[in-house]
Design brief:
CATH superfamily of one domain: CO dehydrogenase flavoprotein, C-terminal domain
Helix content: 25-40%
Low-confidence stretches: none
Structural class: alpha+beta
Number of helices: 12
CATH architecture of one domain: 2-Layer Sandwich
Strand content: 15-25%
Number of strands: 12
Strand order of the largest sheet: 4-5-8-6-7
Bound molecules: flavin-adenine dinucleotide
Order of helices and strands: EHEHEEEHHHHHHHEEEEEEEHHH
CATH topology of one domain: Enolase-like, domain 1
Mean pLDDT: 97
Oligomer: single chain
Radius of gyration: 19 Å
């Protein structure tokens, strides 16, 4: 491992300044992703700014939303009474991720900003435009089983691996950010970006911007929800495809719906056209099949991930059936 400096400021502004003024500095929270990447030589920050002394662990009501601090642990969020009552989809998504030990270390902010699990990003002997811009994309013509079917570019076909983020995008969450130019709010759907010509940029965050919290608005999605994750092992594995589904039902009629796919694109993939199609329809398997067909419009596979063109709609149908029956 390379040498690096380590600081642990107790003031938010000091942490922001430390990263904003040094292009080689990174925030570190639980460290479960960043330290792995440093050990493998994928990332080599020269300074780590540990944010664990900042007061960002609270989960509290804020107007019509639950505000979850960026340092609230994944396990704390999933066990929180208010989150369980108001946002069961988020609880299911968090508990589908990683292992209990990891969720005891992983933070809300760190989870959103974890980096792709594309094997070409992790293997420093291989080309990867995300790790080293301009070197090419090893996955394009390589082994691309786990890769994107939506929103990719010829520079990068990696997917975003976070389960929690799939629920947050479906639930219309907003990310609270503090940076060198002040505070701002980012709709969750705009936090992560598509690769385009600059796959090295995962998000729309500016240098030195610190995530301080996420607001999850109250909604009617407290009962008929499902986070359905398909993976190669029953636990401790990233998704091949996942689907988040939340329904507001009036008897068997769908009043409104929130839907998203995970592990199909460079960002959590919100399915607004399919949501709109569901409104006013009966909550039947036939309706869910139609919604899945809408959700898959524009999907395109590579040599080894054609199975996702079948797996993704079936995962969404299963999530919708489970949500309706909940
Ligand atoms: C074996 C294994 C299996 C896993 N399986 C899954 C899985 O199935 N599903 C899943 O979703 N995840 C999975 N994970 C990933 C895990 O959820 C993430 O590693 C974790 O959530 C990252 O959170 P952290 O606090 O440790 O982040 P860190 O490692 O501390 O940070 C990650 C990134 O976020 C930045 N950062 C952290 N906090 C902030 C902040 N507040 N503001 C700005 N930048 C910040 C850091 O600079 C860094 O770039 C797995 C991990 C491992 C090791």
């Amino acid at each position: 491992m390379n040498q690096f400096n380590y600081i642990r400021p107790s003031k938010q502004q000091a942490a922001i300044d430390a990263v904003a003024k040094d292009g080689n500095a990174k925030f570190i929270a639980g460290g479960t992703n960043l330290v792995d990447l440093m050990k493998r030589g994928v990332m080599a920050p020269q300074k780590l700014v540990d944010i664990n002394r900042l007061p960002l662990t609270k989960i509290e009501r804020q107007g019509n939303a639950l505000r979850i601090g960026a340092l609230a642990l994944n396990s704390t969020v999933a066990d929180d009474r208010q989150v369980r009552e108001r946002q069961p989809l988020l609880v299911q998504a968090i508990n589908a991720g990683a292992s209990a030990q990891l969720r005891n270390m992983a933070t809300t902010g760190g989870n959103m900003l974890q980096r792709t699990r594309c094997p070409y990003f992790y293997d420093t002997a291989m080309p990867c435009n995300k790790r080293e811009p301009g070197t090419g994309c090893g996955a394009l013509e390589g082994i691309n089983r786990m890769h994107a079917i939506f929103g990719f570019s010829d520079k990068c076909i990696a997917v975003h691996p976070s389960d929690m983020s799939v629920a947050l995008v479906a639930l219309d969450a907003t990310v609270l950010v503090s940076g060198p130019k002040g505070d701002r709010r980012i709709p969750f759907t705009d936090l992560h970006r598509l690769p385009g010509d600059a796959p090295e940029k995962d998000t729309t965050l500016e240098p030195g911007e610190l995530i301080t919290a996420v607001d999850v608005p109250d909604g009617p999605f407290t009962k008929h929800v499902s986070y359905y994750k398909v993976r190669e092992r029953a636990s401790y594995a990233f998704a091949l495809v996942s689907a988040a589904a939340a329904l507001d039902l009036d008897g068997t009629t769908i009043k409104s719906a929130r839907l998203a796919f995970g592990s199909v694109a460079h960002k959590p993939w919100r399915l607004t056209a399919a949501e709109q199609m569901l409104v006013g329809k009966p909550a039947t398997e036939e309706t869910f099949r139609q919604a899945a067909a809408v959700a898959m419009q524009g999907a395109k596979a590579f040599k080894h991930n054609e199975y996702k063109l079948k797996l993704a709609p079936n995962t969404l149908i299963q999530a919708l059936k489970t949500a309706a029956a909940a």
